[in-house]
Each structure stands twice: as C-alpha cells, then as structure tokens.
Fold these 2 entries.
Entry 1:
Amino acid sequence: MIESFFKSLSYIFHPLLMPILGLYFLFELETIPNSLYKFDALYYFPDVAKIRLYIVIGVLTFAAPLLSLLIMYWNGLITSLHLEKREERVYPFFIVSFYYLLAYIFVAYQWPQELKHSAFVGFLFGMLLVFVITFLLNFWVKISVHAVAIFGVLGLLIGYNQTQLTAFEGESIPNLMFILLFSIISGLVVTARLYLKAHSLKEVLIGMLIGFAGIYTCVKFGIYI
C-alpha cells in the first residue's frame, strides 16, 4: 500500500507537470502588490493573458515534451517515462531543454512589455537554467528530476511570496500555510523516490539544491536575460 502511494505521488507530481503547476500558483494564489502598480501581483493579471500563457506554457513544457517522450518510448529509445537509466536521459533532456528554451523566448521577447512580470519571466529562465544544469551533470550523476522540479516550485512559492504583501488579515507572510503544506508534499515526493529506490540520497539532495536555489534566486531577484 505504501509503495502504491509513493508511485502515485511520483506520477501526480511528475516533473513535466511542474512548470504549469508553478504558473498556476503564481496566478491563482492571492497576494497584494508591494507597490502602487496592480499587476505587480500576478493574481490580478487579466484573465485573457493568463489563459494565453496557460496554453503556450502548457503546450511547450508539458504536451510537446510528453509527446516527444512517448515517441521515444514507442520506438524503444527509452524504457520508461521516468527515465530511470542515466544513459537514456541524454536525448530526452536535450529535447525538453529545447522546448523550455522556446517557452522562455516567447515570454522574454514576444510577451507585451507591460505584462512582463519579473517573477514569471524569472521562473521560466530559472526553470531552463536548472534543467540545463541537470542535463550537464547527468553525464556524471543521475540527479533526481522529481527533486529538481518539486523543490523548484517550492523555491518559486517562497521567492515570489517574499516580494508580495499578504491579502489575508492575521497572516504575517503571504500564503504561509499553503507554502508549509507544499513543503510537506515536496518532502513526500522526494521520500517516494528514495523509497522506490529510483535514486540515492545523494542524487535526491543534489536535485533539491539545484531546483530550489536556482528558481528561488531567479524569482526572488527577477533574474533573467
């Protein structure tokens, strides 16, 4: 029963779902901008803009990579969608990095300037950055992509909310209870990877560090190129 629970967690919080989940958190968790400009809080972005981003980011970071992985799986290039074998990760990682690059280019250079919030542009840049780092390190160590992805989203939550004001009376830190809940979920996801013997403790810890530090820094300080 425990094994089934951890397997379910690994599928529910599959790395391919994390970019769109992170975007959803940015747009739907209510905060108040720490400025006089309403759109400094992504919660208040126009619905049309949100839907457009959901579609574009959903296609480029989930649908297209998933289809590519399925084609590789059907043709015997990979033996699992979880990419357990380090040797099988090279082509999938390269292709997914390419799709992430396209997503970042769209937001950084095609998106209207007045709606170009540093948090979500930084999130997409951070996502691309940590995935490329993971791709390069994969030649030496099989880093847990689940750990990179889930702790990247946790870094996004903490980094973004540190730039906002709370929308709820009596709450000192924006969305604190939700962040604590997601921290527990993140811990369970990486525990699942250890329990299922998909990764060693070292591989999980490296993934946690890369994901959290990379995306937290890019979102908190609005770093992108």
Note: The chain has one domain: 2-220.
Entry 2:
Amino acid sequence: MTTSEYCAPRTLREGRLNIFDNGPCAMQPVFRDYDQKALDDAYDQAVYAPNRDQLLERRNLASEAARRRLGEPQRFAYGAGSNEQLDVYASRTGTHVQVFVHGGAWRAGRAREYAAPAEMFVGAGAHYVALDFDNAPDCAGDLFVMADQVRRAIAWVYRNAALFGGDAEHIYVSGSSSGAHLAGVAAATDWQRFGMPATLVKGYTLCSGMYDLRGPRLSKRSAYIRFSDAMETELSPQRHVERIGAPIVLLYGSLETPEFQRQAREFAVALEGAGKTVELILAQGYNHFEIAETLGNPYGPMGRAVLAQMGLFIHPGSTRPELIRPGARGAPGAPSPT
C-alpha cells in the first residue's frame, strides 16, 4: 500500500470516516492545509485554552450561586425522553424569553450548569430558559436526535410561554460552541413543517459555533459522533442559508482555535451573500471559554450582544429593565455595541 493509499479517507464499519494515525499520514493534508494533528487540535479547545478547567469550575460555582440567589428553576418536560426537560428562571418584570442551548463538544453539559446567566436576564426583564437534551453518549453520537430535541424544546417554549409569564411573540435563542451549532440548525429550520409560525424565533445569537460539519467530521470528533453524508449535509447550517429568516449575531474570540474563528467568519459571509441580516462580532482577547462566560455579563461581548438583540439593557446601578430606543446604540439595526 502506498502512502497516498494509506492516507485516503476510509469508512469504518460504523459508517464513520477513519481517524488518521500518527504514522505516514501525520503530515499529509486532510482538510484544507491541516494535517491530522493540526485539525484535531483545531477542534480540541484544551489545546488553545489552557485555563479551560478553571473556567468550567468557575461556571459551575457561579451557577450554584445564582440558584441560591434566585431559587431553583421551574422544571418542565418538553418530551418523553429522560433528558427532554428544560429549566425556566422566570422574571417578574418582563415577558421576553431567552432560550439557551449549551455547548460541551456535543458530549457533555447539563442545563443546571448554565444557571449563572439567569441573573442578568431576570434583572433585564426576560425569562431565561436553559435546555437539557441528549449528549452524544446518550444517543449513540446521533446529532439528528440532538437537533430534533432542540427544535422540539423551542417549539414547546412557544406553545407554553404563558405558563411562566413569557410572551410567545418575543422568543430569542442563543447558544455557545456545539450549542451554537444546534441553535444554528434551529435557525435553518422550516418551522411551518412543525406547525409553527415561520417567525417563531425573533433572533439568534451564536457564539463560537460550528456551522459546516466537514471539518469536525474529519477531526477526532468522529470518534464519538456518528457522522454520515446525510448528517454532514443536512446539519450544516451554512449550506442552508436560504432557509434562515431571523436575524443572526455571530461571535467569536481572537484566542479561539483557527477553525472556530474560520467557522464564524465563513458563516457570516454566506449569510451576508444570501442577503440575510447578520452581525459578526470579534471579541479581542477572549478564548473559547472566556467569551462564553460573558453571556451573564451585560457589559461583556455575548451578554451585551444578546440584550441588544432583544432590545433590552440594564442601567448601571439598576436592575430595572429598559427598552432601547430605536436607533440608539445597541438597538436592532444600530451599530454593534461591541
């Protein structure tokens, strides 16, 4: 077998593309200009974010503290599956709804770990809904299952927003990392096929996501995601920009991996080229976990962007929600506040 034959992509019995070893293939390009190790590193956050463990622990501690201050969330089931539930942190002063889709490389994370941003949203007069859904080990690495769960959870929020004081006509969705991918799939959903209005979601804020699955499929992530041609095609939001109707804000950090930076930039170009409403925000000095942490900070890149998209902000020294005046800095259609 020649080196070129050995390095050609092969399909395993499970239907996944092979993971190249560190032998003759190690220095062969497998995707764009990446050899296998470089591509694997570009989809491994720990390589580019040495403070990952510290930030994840801080996230968990902040979420515990938020639950102590706000109280435990209302817990609702949106389906029959054991993970098909969601946490609602209700606001007493407003009706807007923010639905958050967590990340975790598709294989980790629970809604309970993402309670910290609830304080900002509740203070701004918005209900905060954190979704639970299967992680890869729960569904044999099937992203179709996870995407379907996220869609059904969003649809449940639309149908049942009144249960917690929300307004079904003011639903927004955000996500980070693999959660931004799943939220991006939701953005490219034809909601009318599910009996929902096409304008169900009024806007998406997607942070540090993956919007075309070719790169992830060729990386070591295929060791636990059951990629297929159908999955790569159907669940790559960038390939279906014609389906997207709601405004999208994309964020990424300057210290992200090169692939996560590229994914955001190229999705923005595709959206703009299709005439869609899109804003791209580069957060200087933030890595993958640092920028995600700012969802709970009204003055941080992600928190500021989400509140601006919803038309909400918090006055310094006050928790009273205010609506941003049309045309004001941070208002929809105004220059980016970040």
Note: Residues 50-323 form a domain with the Rossmann fold fold (CATH 3.40.50.1820).
